[in-house]
Write a structure and sequence with these properties.
The protein is of the alpha/beta class and 437 residues long. It has 2 domains: 20-236 and 417-429, Aldehyde Dehydrogenase, Chain A, domain 1; 243-392, Aldehyde Dehydrogenase, Chain A, domain 2 (3-Layer(aba) Sandwich), CATH 3.40.309.10. Helices cover 40% and strands 19% of the residues. It has 14 helices and 16 strands. The chain has helices at 20-34, 39-55, 57-73, 78-84, 88-103, 142-153, 167-183, 200-206, 221-230, 253-265, 281-296, 306-312, 346-356, 369-378; strands at 111-116, 122-129, 132-137, 157-161, 191-193, 214-218, 243-247, 274-280, 301-304, 320-323, 337-343, 361-365, 383-386, 406-407, 415-416, 423-430. The chain has a 7-stranded parallel β-sheet, with helices on both faces. Strands 5-4-3-6 form a 4-stranded parallel β-sheet, sandwiched between helices. A 3-stranded antiparallel β-sheet has the order 1-2-16, with no helix packed on it. A hairpin with a 7-residue loop joins strand 14 (406-407) and strand 15. The radius of gyration is 24 Å and the shape is globular.
């Protein structure tokens, strides 16, 4: 029977709320069970969650509306409100993404790099869950479902802590997850949520190394810095995008307009949205007025400097143009604002990205494959694009089903973190009663 909002009331009761240590201990204990569950059992839980999301769509929207109203009262930006919002389309997408994860091959137990040594020992690496994963995130309730789905599929226990601005939405989503898990007799401690909004619990989670194996922050620069500074647990950093597209002299300018529009306008509040467009000086006088007119329809404000500002300052294109400030090319806008700069060639574009980028998502628009290869070789971002929008740096778009984060660090995982990135491995050594000489 479909539950009502009253029946699914999940407001935390201080007398019953578990301590952070209780949560960690429960996660560590259940992780041992999850590590050996068959894929069919995990998939059944995922499909139950997808069904429950759809069944409780009205309830989820109602709880999300409380967060939206509170956010507007607190003066949250339009970009943050967009990240926070759940609507029928997004809820349907959450259910569809969860089903897609269930359909993906289970990486756990897979063996790779097998070899037979001269002494007859057979070695291989076998994928295993990481264990307990703590995820701290802001203003994005969809992360609750994405993380839960990917962790369940890979046999990891998840401890979630969302921002206060999404409290009602996240509590409702976790209630949906727990109801679904109970329906298929799956251990509920596999997905736990720190419901107490006390900020000190974030620091407590970061130091819960007795139970937690990895921390993934999803939010702004301040959250990532806090996690790096305070954690006694390995932290996967990323998700902060200062993303670039370079329009080369050989680029198809008409198609470049379409790619840049998609990269800037489709969803300006997310981390893989383009923040700066670099334009080769040979095509700047032709391309920049066309770019300004194209983006003016979407009310994109252009922040330009030097010769780019001089070209864009001319009337006729209808776009708002502002002189770029000292920090503008280092800014992740998360809004309909775009930095614009003219560069001499591909080498200057590479240097600008090196100086100002965050190694998230950067691309070149070109028909010169020597320049394309030079750009790809030189740019060390988590994803590098040739003639494609930066918006593709996403787990779903890369065929991973979903993602827990986009990592910009260089250890363990880079780019969208899907199923394989939530596993580690152990060596398996098969002998014939071997002893070491």
């Amino acid at each position: 029977m479909k539950q009502t909002a009253t029946q699914m009331d999940n407001a935390p009761d201080s007398a019953l709320t578990p301590t952070i240590d209780d949560i960690g201990k429960a996660a560590k204990n259940v992780a041992r069970q999850l590590a050996v569950l068959p894929a069919a059992v995990k998939n059944r839980a995922l499909l139950a969650i997808a069904d429950e999301i759809e069944a409780q769509a009205d309830y989820l929207i109602a709880q999300n509306a409380i967060d939206l109203d509170n956010g507007r009262a607190k003066g949250l930006s339009d970009a943050l409100l967009d990240r926070l919002m759940l609507n029928p389309g997004r809820i349907a997408a959450l259910a569809a993404d969860t089903r897609r994860v269930a359909e993906l091959p289970d990486p756990v137990g897979g063996e790779f790099e097998s070899r037979l040594l001269p002494n007859g020992l057979r070695l291989s690496k076998r994928r295993i869950p990481i264990g307990v994963i703590g995820v701290i995130y802001e203003a994005r309730p969809n992360v609750t479902i994405d993380v839960a789905a990917l962790c369940l599929k890979t046999g990891n226990a998840a401890i979630l802590r969302g921002g206060t601005e999404t409290l009602q939405s996240n509590l409702a989503l976790v209630a949906v997850i727990q109801a679904a898990l109970a329906r298929v007799d799956f251990p509920g401690a596999a997905v736990q949520y720190i419901a107490n909004p006390d900020r000190s619990l974030v620091t407590a989670l970061l130091r819960l190394d007795k139970y937690v194996d990895m921390i993934i922050p999803r939010g702004g620069a301040a959250l990532h810095k806090l996690c790096r500074d305070q954690a006694t647990i390995p932290v996967i950093t990323g998700g902060i995008g200062v993303c670039h597209l370079f329009v080369d002299a050989s680029a198809d300018l008409e198609r470049s307009l379409t790619v840049i529009e998609n990269a800037k306008v489709q969803r300006p509040s997310v981390c893989n949205t383009v923040d700066t467009v670099l334009v080769h000086r040979a095509v700047a006088s032709d391309f920049l007025p066309r770019l300004a007119a194209h983006l003016a329809r979407h009310k994109v404000e252009l922040r330009a400097t030097g010769p780019a500002l001089a070209i864009l300052a001319q009337d006729g294109h209808g776009a708002a143009v502002v002189e770029a400030g000292p920090e503008d090319f280092d800014t992740e806008w998360m809004a309909l604002i775009l930095g614009v700069k003219i560069v001499a060639d591909v080498e200057e574009a590479i240097q600008h990205i090196y100086d100002h980028g965050s190694e998230h998502s950067d691309g070149i628009l070109t028909n010169d494959w020597r320049n394309a290869n030079r750009f790809v070789d030189a740019i060390n971002s988590s994803a590098v694009f040739v003639n494609a929008s930066t918006r593709f740096n996403d787990g779903g778009q890369f065929g991973l089903g979903a993602e827990v984060a986009v990592s910009t660090q260089k250890l363990h995982a880079r780019g969208p973190m899907g199923l394989e990135e939530l596993t580690t491995y152990k060596w398996v050594c098969l002998g014939d009663w071997h002893v070491r000489p």
